[in-house]
Amino acid sequence: MDTWLYVSLIALTAGFVKGVSGFGSSLVSIPLLALVFGVDYIKEIVVVMVTFNLILNSMLLVAHKGFRIDSLRNVWLIPLFGILFTIVGIEIFIAVSDTTIKTIAGIMILVSMGIKILQYSPYSITLPETNLFKIIVGSLSGIGNGIASIDGPPVVFYLSSIHAEKVYFKNVLAAHFLVMGIAAVFYHISIGSYTMDIVSILLVMIVGTAIGAFVGIKISKNWQQHIFDYVVIVILFALGMYFLLW
């Protein structure tokens, strides 16, 4: 009983983080779920999060009436190469050990923390909006999505570096995550990744997610974003180090 209570609370937290910031559900959930089920269950947790994120993104799109799929019009190379390299990432995910997945996830979480810190650094990085950078960003996002359901950091970094306006930033992220989630779920279905354990975890998480996302969206309208980001940076550091050192 305690296990499912913890899973529900993790889902609530993931939904809240996603509702406030537009990303970060996997960064928070994967290490916390590993604490509940053990790091030897990491591959099942990744499949859970791939599917969970698709459900969560769909919920947010319904709630976010201003969402526009054509936000991807100018960055279509990012989701295109994201889809292609999601398949590559999943094949790597199948081939490597749980320990390797755990280490990669830990590194990705710490990289995400670094990107968050850069957003508040006086030494901002500006990248040109070229097709080459979009291809690189999409490819890295796809590999992260396939290996550990962590596809946000490269896209967040790119959008921050081109100083994307807030609404455009969130729209691109939402559309990209939706496309990537669909690609990953269909590929996992095709290779038979789903088990009854995975389905059970997902069913428990859905209710908590809906509540957390709703609260996060409401609060984000009046939330001091920098305070939330500082809290997230500390959490990401702790979770990332846990994955690397445990």
From TrEMBL:
**Where is the organism placed in the taxonomic lineage, from the top?**
Bacteria, Bacillati, Mycoplasmatota, Mollicutes, Candidatus Izemoplasmatales
Q: Which InterPro entries match?
A: TM_pro_TauE-like (IPR002781), TSUP (IPR052017)
Family classification:
Belongs to the 4-toluene sulfonate uptake permease (TSUP) (TC 2.A.102) family.
Protein's organism: Candidatus Xianfuyuplasma coldseepsis
Parts forming coiled coils: none
Q: Where does it sit, as one GO cellular component term?
A: plasma membrane
Instruction: Give the primary localization class.
Output: membrane
Q: What's the protein name?
A: Probable membrane transporter protein
Task: Look up and give the membrane topology term.
Answer: Multi-pass membrane protein
Segments passing through the bilayer: 6-33, 45-63, 75-96, 103-123, 135-159, 171-189, 195-215, 227-245
Indicate where this protein resides in the cell: Cell membrane
> Which keywords describe this protein according to UniProt?
Cell membrane, Membrane, Transmembrane, Transmembrane helix, Transport
Q: Pfam family example for this protein?
A: TauE
Record's superkingdom?
Bacteria
Q: Does the keyword Cell membrane apply?
A: yes
